[in-house]
Amino acid sequence: MTETPHSTAPTIGVFDSGFGGLTVLAALIPKLPRARFAFIGDTARLPYGSKSRRTIARYAVESAQFLVREQGAEFLVIACNTASALALDAIQDAVPVPVLGVIEPGATAARAASKTGDVLVIATDATVQSHAYKAACAAQNLRALEKACPLLVPFVEEGWTSHPVTDEVIRIYLNELATQAATDGLNPDALVLGCTHYPLLRPLIERAVPAGMNVIDSAESTAATAAGMFNGRAKPKHAINDNQPTEIHCFATDSVEKFERLGSRFLGRPVGKVQLVDLGG
Ligand code: DGL
């Protein structure tokens, strides 16, 4: 059992397969500064991006239930692109609170950024195979070309966010994507970072894309959507006290020290003491 919340602020649960989703939490905090945030990174079972829908759904549901049952979350943000792409329905069925994923906000941000109506998406294998971004973009009248970049998550996990090898691999992936786009007759002007880890590679990615290509991180768009839902439809049970500082509680299913060390890089501030949680195998 983990420490039970004492706070009277409404709890927003944020879930990722690892600590990459802290980039989404970083965007949520200024939008909902009076909330209490409970973040869980399922670090023991990362990466999700190479696993099957069934496994991803089982893992993601366990984390979502932890946030709702043990942390009292009244609203969930699924910061993990892979879990949003493959398990959003399963999570929504499993918990009695509103759940927001990152795919639709990402497509909305791409719509706002693209003039040509053609966009590129880079993501994990599982996200690309699900074609969740393609479908969400089509709903916004965008044509999307998706590409899996499976080497990038391990590079970020290794802390190689400005390493020459990472730089070279990004260029190779993006060149392949540009060649495919030309073959398909697309004229893309936006690139969606469809994975929690990729915002950490943004400087390298921005240097590698052609001039005029907008690089989209769904975190801001997700945070704006979350704030709208939370302040509207998902009314908190508790009154919000304006003088209450943002509370952040982080949980991980493994490697708490690594989470504490690297997590601050994703969150942009110290993550504090991270608690270990056992969600089973
Ligand atoms: N969180 C995952 C995502 O956003 C990336 C890491 C993983 O493969 O688990 O797709």
From TrEMBL:
Entry EC number(s): 5.1.1.3
Pathway: Cell wall biogenesis; peptidoglycan biosynthesis
KW Translocase (keyword) present: no
Catalytic activity: L-glutamate = D-glutamate
Keywords assigned: Cell shape, Cell wall biogenesis/degradation, Isomerase, Peptidoglycan synthesis
Sample GO molecular function, one term: glutamate racemase activity
Enzyme type, top EC level: isomerase
Annotated substrate binding sites: 16-17, 48-49, 81-82, 196-197
Entry annotation: catalytic residues: 80 (proton donor/acceptor), 195 (proton donor/acceptor)
Biological processes, Gene Ontology terms: cell wall organization; peptidoglycan biosynthetic process; regulation of cell shape
Function: Provides the (R)-glutamate required for cell wall biosynthesis.
Family in the record: Belongs to the aspartate/glutamate racemases family.
Protein name (database record): Glutamate racemase
Organism name: Telmatobacter sp. DSM 110680
Organism lineage: Bacteria, Pseudomonadati, Acidobacteriota, Terriglobia, Terriglobales
